[in-house]
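Much of the work behind modern protein science is quiet bookkeeping, done one molecule at a time. The protein below has been through that process, and both of its lines are reproduced in full.
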Amino acid sequence: MIKVIVELTAKPGKRAELRVLLEDFIARHGPGTPGYLGSTRYEVVDQPDVIVELADWESVETRDRHMNALAQSGALAPLGDLMGAPFRVTVIRPLA
């Protein structure tokens, strides 16, 4: 199992809009996706335009396949309209 940390920075004052769009996106493209185990979103206390998502996946490969398919379909484009900076992704796993 892996965890994926995604940091999204909204355009100034647009975090609430980004959150709504992100929640809708996850509801449509998360549950039922092979390898997706769930996720939780967080606000960053001292950065009012940042959202952090922690997602659980079965493997890097299942996540990569899903994200590549979404990117190719254009499904990620609406999120970009509200982003103030490129999102940052960190993939982690337990130490062996």
About this structure: The mean pLDDT is 95. Residues 2-92 form a domain with the Alpha-Beta Plaits fold (CATH 3.30.70.100). The two ends are 12 Å apart (CA to CA).
